[in-house]
């Protein structure tokens, strides 16, 4: 993260820096601000390149998600402004969607003002995010094929961050240990489902 | 023996830091010593991490959705409240108000404008090409139904060298001569060198050349043209020409009868061609009484050919045919020719009188004998045009 590196001519503006710091600190208002700030740019870009309003929203949310998750991990290495980074990510995402939809080669109309969107590291980040998406998709599938009550139990504990006591009450177990044991059994089954599917799928 | 679930309980306690110091040391030692055990722990971590990350992702997605909805909601009031308000309490931005339909139309337009543009231009070009094509097609068929029978010969092989020698004999310095542009048929009118052909054969002629069966060529010039009856009279101007001799046919000044057997000689190609039929009507194309309709198959090049009856009297001059009817050809009646010659003879110069043949020599003989006599008086009329 370039905030920590002693970069003399940091391309990040002070507002960018502050924003990243605030988002990392879990400030929802900062995220909302960032979201609102760059939405017109991406929306315009997608609309200009034969997308709809809904497409723009999907692409933008996905793009912000990539950015947001990297910020939260602290693994974001920005060599440009947030604006440029987001543009590059969303551009890549939209290009991918267009190519999968179209039989012909796709040429994008770019807004020149958003500067050099190449070499922003966005390409790699998008690829990593795709890998992550695949992992999540497999996991969701595994969870769905797990069946009740395992699915709800695991979702409750890991995804929704509920405490073991709440879950014990919710699922009507006699005590927390029973619930815990059930959860571990569920985990073992999930593990089999997840890893068989995840590993065998081609990258 | 611990089950997989028991290991998971242990791992979770370890990850949460709830394990007592000795148990933890024991576990760590085992992790570093036993690779299978370490792998099992790694799998557990990946599994739970993925689960947690998935939870976070879902939460973040929810959050972003909320933000987007809030953003749209913040924009919305400007769109919705203005029309409802009876009095304007705040500034109105009319540009922001885009209806749903209009937005859809705009999206469609921005997405497909290139395609639409191409399609539109293709359509426009197709329309104009069709119109232009139809126009050209119509222009080529200026006279629907009627076709004048002069032959366009820019493809027919010709003996050009012989031709140019003749030309250069006539005038000392002649530019190189192109092959003739059209040809028709003509026949002798008087023994002094007058000929008859159709007007449309020599129409627009720059110079006219007569070529007989023996390939002898004479220069000729149009003397008189009757556009209405499609007749033209030529006179041979060549110095080496010394008369046709006595003509074997007489020119009939009256009208021929319906159903008479008639025949013609002409040059639709390089050789003389005989055609035979009957006089099928005493009026021509669209009831023109200056013409006969004859049932002789004729072709371009037959124009200006003589039409003779059984006894070898000249009764007409072949002029054209009807395209959309079977074997309907037309010939100018000889009575018009006689009348024309009479009027010309009244004003003729003394050195070139008209002496029409009065008596034919063909009556009574068989057709081949008739043709043998006749063919020396039928000529190719070649027409040259200035470019």
3D architecture notes:
The complex is a heterodimer of chains A (203) and B (387). Residues 1-10 of chain A have low confidence and may be disordered. Chain A contains eight helices and no strands. Chain A has 203 residues and is mainly alpha-helical. Chain B is an alpha+beta fold and 387 residues long. Chain B folds into three domains: 4-74, no CATH class; 98-140; 141-387, Thrombin, subunit H. Chain B has helices at 4-16, 21-33, 35-84, 100-140, 160-170, 199-202, 334-347, 367-374; strands at residues 146-148, 151-152, 182-188, 194-197, 207-211, 217-226, 231-236, 261-266, 273-281, 291-294, 306-309, 314-322, 329-333, 378-384. In chain B, the strands form two sheets. Chain B has a six-stranded antiparallel beta barrel with strand order 8-9-10-13-12-11. Chain B has a six-stranded antiparallel beta barrel with strand order 3-4-7-6-5-14. In chain B, β5 (207-211) and β6 form a beta hairpin. The N and C termini of chain B lie far apart (114 Å). Classes of the chains: A mainly alpha (203), B alpha+beta (387). The interface between A and B is large, with 40 and 33 residues.
Distance between the termini of chain A: 28 Å
Gyration radius of chain A, to the nearest Å?
Answer: 21 Å
Distance between the termini of chain B: 114 Å
Q: Give the structural class of chain A.
A: mainly alpha
Which ranges of chain B are low-confidence, i.e. pLDDT below 50, for 5 or more consecutive residues?
A: 79-86, 171-176
**Beta fraction of the residues of chain A?**
under 5%
pLDDT below 50 for ≥5 consecutive residues: which ranges of chain A?
1-10
**Number of DSSP helical runs of chain A:** 8
Order of helices and strands of chain A: HHHHHHHH
Q: At the first level of CATH, what is the class of the largest domain in chain B? A: Mainly Beta
Oligomer: heterodimer
Question: What is the CATH third-level topology name of the largest domain in chain B?
Answer: Thrombin, subunit H
């Amino acid at each position: 993260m370039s905030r920590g590196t002693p970069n003399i001519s940091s391309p990040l503006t002070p507002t960018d820096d502050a924003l990243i710091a605030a988002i990392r600190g879990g400030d929802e208002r900062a995220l909302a601000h960032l979201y609102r700030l760059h939405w017109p740019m991406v929306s315009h870009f997608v609309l200009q390149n034969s997308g709809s309003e809904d497409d723009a929203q999907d692409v933008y949310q996905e793009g912000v998600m990539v950015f947001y998750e990297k910020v939260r991990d602290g693994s974001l290495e920005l060599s440009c402004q947030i604006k440029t980074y987001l543009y590059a990510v969303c551009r890549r995402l939209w290009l991918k969607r267009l190519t999968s939809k179209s039989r012909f080669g796709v040429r994008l109309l770019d807004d020149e003002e958003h500067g050099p969107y190449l070499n922003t590291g966005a390409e790699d980040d998008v690829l990593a995010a795709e890998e992550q998406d695949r992992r999540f998709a497999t996991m969701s599938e595994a969870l769905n094929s797990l069946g009740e009550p395992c699915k709800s139990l695991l979702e409750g504990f890991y995804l929704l961050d509920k405490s073991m006591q709440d879950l014990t009450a919710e699922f009507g177990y006699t005590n927390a240990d029973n619930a815990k044991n059930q959860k571990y059994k569920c985990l073992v089954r999930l593990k089999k489902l997840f890893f068989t599917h995840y590993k065998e799928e081609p990258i | 023996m611990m089950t997989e679930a028991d290991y998971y309980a242990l791992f979770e306690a370890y990850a949460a830091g709830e394990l007592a110091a000795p148990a933890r040391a024991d576990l760590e030692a085992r992790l570093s010593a036993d690779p299978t055990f370490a792998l099992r722990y790694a799998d557990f971590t990946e599994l739970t991490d993925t689960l947690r990350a998935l939870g976070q992702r879902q939460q973040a997605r929810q959050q972003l959705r909320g933000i987007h909805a809030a953003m749209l909601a913040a924009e919305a009031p400007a769109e919705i409240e203005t029309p409802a308000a009876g009095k304007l309490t705040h500034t109105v931005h009319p540009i922001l108000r885009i209806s749903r339909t209009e937005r859809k139309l705009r999206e469609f337009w921005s997405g497909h404008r290139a395609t639409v543009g191409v399609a539109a231009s293709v359509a426009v070009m197709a329309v104009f090409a069709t119109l232009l094509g139809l126009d050209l097609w119509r222009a080529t068929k200026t006279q629907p139904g009627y076709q004048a029978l002069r032959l366009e010969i820019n493809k027919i092989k010709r003996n050009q060298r012989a031709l140019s020698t003749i030309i250069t004999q006539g005038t000392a310095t002649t530019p190189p001569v192109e092959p003739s542009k059209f040809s028709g048929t003509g026949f002798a009118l008087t023994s002094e060198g007058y000929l008859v052909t159709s007007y449309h054969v020599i129409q627009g002629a720059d110079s006219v050349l007569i070529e007989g069966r023996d390939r002898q060529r004479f220069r000729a010039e149009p003397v008189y043209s009757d556009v209405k009856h499609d007749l033209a009279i030529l006179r041979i101007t060549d110095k080496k020409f010394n008369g046709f001799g006595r003509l074997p046919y007489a020119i009939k000044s009256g009208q021929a009868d319906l159903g008479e057997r008639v025949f013609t000689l002409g040059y639709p190609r390089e050789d003389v061609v005989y055609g035979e039929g009957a006089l099928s009507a005493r009026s021509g194309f669209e009831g023109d009484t200056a013409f006969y309709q004859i049932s002789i198959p004729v072709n371009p090049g037959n124009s200006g050919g003589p039409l003779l009856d059984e006894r070898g009297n000249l009764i007409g001059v072949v002029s054209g045919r009807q395209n959309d009817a079977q074997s309907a050809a037309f010939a100018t009646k000889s009575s018009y020719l006689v009348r024309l010659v009479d009027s010309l003879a009244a004003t003729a110069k003394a050195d070139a009188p008209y002496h029409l043949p009065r008596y034919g020599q063909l009556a009574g003989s068989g057709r081949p004998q008739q043709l043998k006599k006749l063919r020396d008086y039928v000529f190719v009329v070649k027409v040259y045009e200035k470019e």
